[in-house]
Each structure stands twice: as C-alpha cells, then as structure tokens.
Design a protein that fits this description.
- Strand 2 and strand 3 form a beta hairpin.
- The protein is built from 16 helices and 17 strands.
- The chain has 600 residues and is α+β, with helices and mostly antiparallel strands.
- A 10-stranded antiparallel beta sheet has the order 8-9-10-11-12-14-15-16-17-13. It has a 5-stranded antiparallel beta sheet with strand order 4-3-2-1-5, with no helix packed on it.
- Helix 3 runs antiparallel to helix 6, helix 5 packs parallel to helix 6 and helix 6 packs across helix 8.
- It is elongated.
- It folds into 3 domains: 253 residues, no CATH class; 121 residues, no CATH class; 145 residues, no CATH class.
- The termini are far apart.
Length: 600
C-alpha cells in the first residue's frame, strides 16, 4: 500500500474514543474493541468529580506544514473531525469494508479542468473500483475531506499502465523558494518500467518545472489504497484519443470528440430537451451548449422550413433557456408553407407593425405556454401560437381552452364532422383542422386566421342583390363561394359557413341576415406573394336568397383622379385576375371601379 503524506490535523480528538479515532468510517464498537483500555483498568467517576469540558486546557493546534492541499480538496473545513490514522497503523480487518458516503455530495470540478467523464476501470483480474461516485461531473477525482482520508480516494489498479502519456497529476513543486511550494498540475510525457515500480516523467502544465517519480507497483488493487505517493496525486487519465485508447473497458467520452463531430453529428441528434439536460450536467456541457450554438440551430431550422425571410427573433437579455424553448417550438412546428401568404397579407394591412420579417421576442416565447400545452396542439395551432399577436390575433390558452380575443375557439375532429352532414367534412386535414369561432365554422384554422383580416384596407366596391333580382349573378357568386380552391387561380382563400338557426327563430329576420345560413369567402387577389407592394381581396357572401361582393384594397388612392384611375393598380389586378367575371361580380360598380367595360 502506498504511503500517504499528512498535511496536518483536521481538529482535536473526539473524547471517549481515543486520541486517534478516525471518525464514522470505523464503528465505535470495533474501535473500542482494539483501542479502548481493558475493563479492569477503567474507573467510573462520580458526577461531582467529573471535569467539565470547558475547564479542560485549550491547546492551540499546530500550524500545518508543507504546501496547501490541491485546489479541489476541502481540507480543514470541518473542525470537529478527528486526526486520521494512517491505514498501515491499523489492523487490516479494521479498515472500512465499504466506502462511506460523503456528508454533502462531491464538490464541483475546478473551472480550469477538462477531464474525461468516465470512471477508472480496473485491469483484468483486479477488484472493481467502488469509488466512482466520488468522481466529478467531468471525471476529476475529488476528495471529500482532504488528501489525508484513506476512504475518500478512488484507486486505479497498479502503477504499471496506470500513468499513460497525457495523464494529469497533482505535484508539489520542488524548485520553488522554501515556503513557496504549491500544488501544480503536471502532465505525464514518459513512463519507463523499473524494478518494482514505474518511473514517471512529468512536466508542469503551463509552467517550467519537470518531475520524475518512481511509483511502486501495486499488484493487488485495494479499495482502501491511495493515489497519493510523496505528494503525487492522480487528477486525470490519459486522453481517450491516444493510440491505446481502445483498451478493454474504455469508452470515448462525449467531450473527447473533435469539435466539428461533436457539434455537427452528436449534438445534431439531440433535441432541445436533451441539450437543456446536457447543459445542466457539467461545466463543459454549459459551455458547449452555448447561446451561439443554440442560435445556429434556430437559424438552421428557420432556413430549412423556408421562413427565415418572414420570421426572425431577438431575445432581449437572451437566456439559453428562452432560446432552447424557441428552438423546440420552431423544431416541432411542422410545415409552414401555408402561413407565408397570410403573414404577407397581414403586413400589407399594417398588422403587428406592418414589417417583415416578424421579430419574435421573449414575450412571444412565453405566450406559447408550456411544452405540454404546445405538444397538445395541432400543427397549425403550434405555428400560430408564437406569431399570433404579430398578425392581429389575440390568442391565449385558458385552462386548456384555446381563445381568440377572449372567445372560445373550438377545434373539430373527424368524429365531430361525421355526426352531421358538414360541408367541410371531405376536406378535413388533421394538421390544419376545421374549427369554430364566434358562431362561424371555418374550413381550416388558417382559413379562420385569414378571415380576421377581411376588413383590412379601404372599400373599392360593395354590390348586393337578391336571388330573384339577378339569378345569374346569384348562381355565379354561389359557385365562387363554395367550389374547391383555387378560384381564378388564386389559392390564398378563407372559406366560412354560418349554420342556419332553428326555423322558429328566423321568421322575423331580414333576407340577408347570417342567421338564415350563409357561406362567406375571402379571396386574396394580390399582396400574398414576394414583390407585391399592396394587398387587394374580394369578399363574397351567399345566403339562401342573397349575394354580396365586397372589394377592398390597401393601395393609396390618387387624389386628383376619379373612377378606376383613382386606384390604377387595383383596377389592373381586378381586370387581370377576375377577367370575364368582373361585370357579373361587380354589377353596376364595374365601370366605375375597375373599368370592366373595356374588357367585356
């Protein structure tokens, strides 16, 4: 067994158990069996002859000699701990047979360490090491009570093969001025076998001193042995990428990988939750899962989903926690293809500041809610939740109920639609499902969002008529309002349906009242694509005996002009998109608004 230097006592002896009682690592009964005086030599004093402890002479403890302990030890923090007995002064059977647990978990590793994270592995034929619980999160050997406690050091097998090139150790400086010796780290750069031991050559890390030490062989590993020999303490094992790193029992540590492999291969397989856990694991984890790394992941997902040009983010006083949550929301949000046209319409109408791209912040991350709430939503709702306020939708989740502007939003399932002869049953999409809001049913969630923008811009034309006044116009608008998209080769469309009230409730309602049952549709003619400078859309409304066409635009009018010349770009779009249907749709408004007489 290797000798162990003692840097100084921890405190005074514990009364009643002998001057060298080593503490809880040995039971009191076992210690007294070998060290207490025999019964015939003991004497029980009456209470009046007992000396109170406060009257005993108080002798100051001698100052410790030698260099201070290594930076990672906690020597001398417990003044009540008795002086320790060297293991070779005790009978072998009195040594503890199992390691005692430290009173308060291992201390954190020093910030300057970069240590492999696996536990030492015994050579073939030797006993397993029971002290791996004392290894720090990055693999550093820590002492709970100081370098003098034989129960707090892990043990490697024998000196042969123990100290490989690259192994890091603590060494006491020898060439410094007397009284200025200190513990320093040194790396092993050469080993050579000798009779009964190994000659280990070491060089101080970022220093000038070199050391040579002959470490005796220890053919049989003992769980009570030490890694300390004349001021020589093992700190780290050899790097795993050495030529002999594939020995039995060794594994490549996560942080031993090349940075590009770690970042582009291993970390790429980890989700935001795994990255958050890795960040909390150890100091190196928190450094590697940095703000910059998470930012690169978010940017990559925005690019891959094709939304980097319409969605950006700026987390003020950004924290990795908020950025990891945003990463999760973007990563798990699905296909955003249907949202870009809607976002462009909203921005042309000045919603959310009217600027592209949408800039997400901490408030948007918080507004999404918990991960459980987010995971329970359909794909379209996941996408809407962080951007809702930027496109004019006040969205919230209240005790599990989705709400818009304080009113409930109901998401339908296929089973719900099968119960009735629903007009949207055949086109149901679970990622973008049918929903109901404020008494209206929408073909999809995105349809409902687009319908919230129906009154954006200014009115160009508004033409209503009854079924019996103009049957041709009624039938054409009914077809435009109910046919499957696209309409006029336009695909940014919102379709809604208002079910009729019970027959006994509608007798006094006017013929154009929605309570009689109605189909509405918003058809975006312009402003949903890159390069568009304004937005224009047509609203069609069809009831049992009533139709209406409502045309709106965000184009600024030309003050000095009238008729179609007042909104020249809007009139051009209407003629090009609507074509031959312009006169049917706009009726008496056609010539004054879009100049349809020139084309029909």
């Amino acid at each position: 067994m290797l000798p162990m230097p003692i840097a100084g006592p921890f405190g005074g002896p514990r009364s009643g158990f002998g001057p060298f009682y080593p503490g809880p690592s040995i039971s009191r009964q076992l210690y007294q069996q070998y060290h207490a005086p025999p019964p015939h030599m003991t004497m029980n004093l009456p209470p009046h002859m007992t000396i109170p402890p406060q009257m005993l002479p108080q002798h100051p403890l001698p100052a410790p000699t030698g260099p201070p302990p290594p930076p990672h030890t906690h020597m001398g923090e417990n003044p009540q701990m008795a002086t320790l007995v060297l293991p070779y002064l005790m009978p072998q059977h009195m040594l503890p047979q199992s390691p005692r647990r430290p009173p308060h978990g291992p201390p954190p590793p020093p910030p300057h360490s970069h240590i492999n994270d696996g536990a030492p592995v015994a050579e073939e034929g030797e006993q397993p090491v029971p002290f791996e619980g004392l290894l720090g999160g990055e693999g550093e050997v820590h002492s709970m009570l100081g370098p003098d406690d034989p129960t707090t050091h892990p043990i490697l097998p024998s000196s042969h093969g123990r100290y490989e090139n690259g192994t890091r150790v603590w060494m006491v400086t020898a060439k410094r001025d007397k009284g200025k010796q200190e513990w320093v780290k040194a790396d092993v750069y050469h080993t050579e076998g000798t009779s009964g031991g190994t000659r280990v050559s070491m060089r101080e890390v970022e220093g000038r001193e070199e050391f040579i030490m002959v470490v005796p062989h220890q053919p049989k590993a003992s769980p009570h042995g030490l890694q300390v020999h004349e001021g020589f303490t093992l700190v780290e094992r050899a790097p795993r990428d050495e030529s002999d790193s594939n020995k039995h029992g060794q594994h490549v540590g996560l942080f031993d990988l090349p940075p590009d492999v770690e970042r582009d291969v291993v970390f790429a397989l980890l989700g935001p939750g795994d990255l958050a856990r890795l960040r909390r694991t150890c100091t190196l984890g928190s450094r590697r899962v940095s703000e910059d790394y998470v930012k690169t992941r978010i940017d990559a997902h925005l690019t891959n989903k094709g939304i980097k040009h319409i969605i950006s983010y700026r987390i003020k006083h950004r924290t990795v926690g908020h950025m990891l949550r945003l990463l999760y929301f973007i990563e798990q949000s699905g296909d955003w293809a249907g949202w870009e046209p809607i976002i462009r319409v909203a921005k042309h109408q000045g919603r959310g500041g009217g600027q592209l791209s949408i800039e997400l912040g901490s408030a948007d991350v918080e507004a999404v809610g918990s991960r459980a709430v987010f995971d329970g939503r359909c794909e379209a709702m996941r996408q809407l939740s962080p951007i809702a306020r930027h496109i004019g939708v006040r969205h919230e989740n209240h005790d599990g109920e989705e709400r818009w502007h304080g009113r409930p939003l109901t998401i339908y399932t296929p089973q719900t639609l099968l119960l009735v002869d629903h007009p949207f049953r055949n086109g149901f999409d679970p990622a973008n499902p049918v929903c109901e809001y404020d008494g209206w049913e929408y073909a999809s969630l995105r349809d409902a969002v687009l319908d919230q923008m129906r009154y954006g811009g200014s009115v160009v034309a508004d033409e209503s008529s009854s079924r019996w006044e103009n049957a041709t116009r009624y039938n054409r608008l009914h077809s435009l309002s109910t046919q499957q998209p696209p309409v006029w080769d336009r695909r940014t469309i919102s379709t809604s349906h208002r079910p009729a009230l019970p027959s006994d409730s509608v007798s006094d309602l006017p013929f154009d009242h929605p309570g009689l049952g109605r189909f509405d549709r918003v058809i975006v003619l312009h402003g949903d694509q890159p390069g568009h400078t304004f937005q224009a859309h047509l609203i069609t409304c069809v009831g049992p005996d009533f139709v209406r066409a409502h045309f709106r635009t965000t184009e600024p009018p030309v003050d000095s002009e009238v008729g179609a010349a007042r909104l020249p770009q809007t009139a051009r779009v209407a003629r090009e998109v609507i074509g031959a249907d312009a006169e049917t749709v706009f009726g008496s408004w056609c010539s004054a608004t879009v100049g349809c007489s020139a084309t029909v």
